[in-house]
Amino acid sequence: MTARISYDAVEVGTEVPVREFRVNRADLVRYAGASGDFNPIHWNETFAKEVGLPDVIAHGAYTMAEAARVVSDWAGDPGALVEYGVRFTRPVVVPNDDKGAVIEIGAKVAAKLDDEARTVRLDITATSAGQKVLGRARAVVRLA
Amino acid sequence: MALDQSFVGRSYPPTAPYEVGREKIREFAESLGDTNPVYTDPEAARALGYPDVIAPPTFVFTITFKAAGKQVIEDPQLGLDYSRVVHGDQRFEYTRPVRAGDRLTVTSAIDSIKSLAGNDILSVRGEVHDEAGDHVATSFTTLVARAADAEVEESR
């Protein structure tokens, strides 16, 4: 395990730049296949509306995976994640067009947890259509 | 309909091993558009100190969710209405990343059951171990079965 970022090089407030992820219906179908989560709320809008959703929504785990990518690309090693958790506060609604939805994800160092273990806590923000889609999104990462 | 509180604390037997393959990891990473070579190129993984390609951090959820689905969500005695289920929150604790060649078992347990504004809120824990019996990761999943007349915003 080899993180690229050094514990000594970060401070509370160090920012991980915001990245944009575009997700369309085809992406959701692909993720459904890869993950094995075939819940029709992620690909069938008739079904989604019947159960009270505004439209097809992205898998929460899809958004969570893209947020993990922001953190792991920054740290330089996905295996540097020690702990990672999110709350799915609002669904990412994915319209049936070629544009889909956009998720904007960024993070910042919220705490330096342990000088010995060289762990920091990152607080992650994720929004789509101007709304927060993840709450209490936090990752504990072991740095170099 | 509120879920039966007596299910809290219930633990299910470990699943049969799930064998993690390189191509499955590749498929999963590609579905995210994630091109990090540590997921697809054994050399790149070895350069970071891993014996083989590793999986993206949330990949383990596909294994724990499958286990929870078969054993807990579809437990007829529990009676959860899966058609109304959305993912409430999700947390992982990692001892090490999942990697190709792993044979992983999941032991699922129900941590809590709550009822809030007609929604059933179920917290399931999945402990993931490798073939040697060593801990790999633990997944904490909260599922919300929305009340039949609720709009999604009201349940969150």
Automatic annotation (TrEMBL), chain A:
Q: Which residues form the MaoC-like domain?
A: 19-112
Give the Pfam families listed for this entry. Answer: MaoC_dehydratas (PF01575)
Q: Which InterPro entries match?
A: Fatty_acid_synthase, HotDog_dom_sf, MaoC-like_dom
Give the highest taxon in the source lineage: Bacteria
Gene3D superfamilies of this UniProt entry? Hotdog Thioesterase
Q: Which family does it belong to?
A: Belongs to the enoyl-CoA hydratase/isomerase family.
Q: Any idea what this protein is called?
A: Acyl dehydratase
Q: Per the UniProt entry, what species is this protein from, by scientific name?
A: Streptomyces demainii
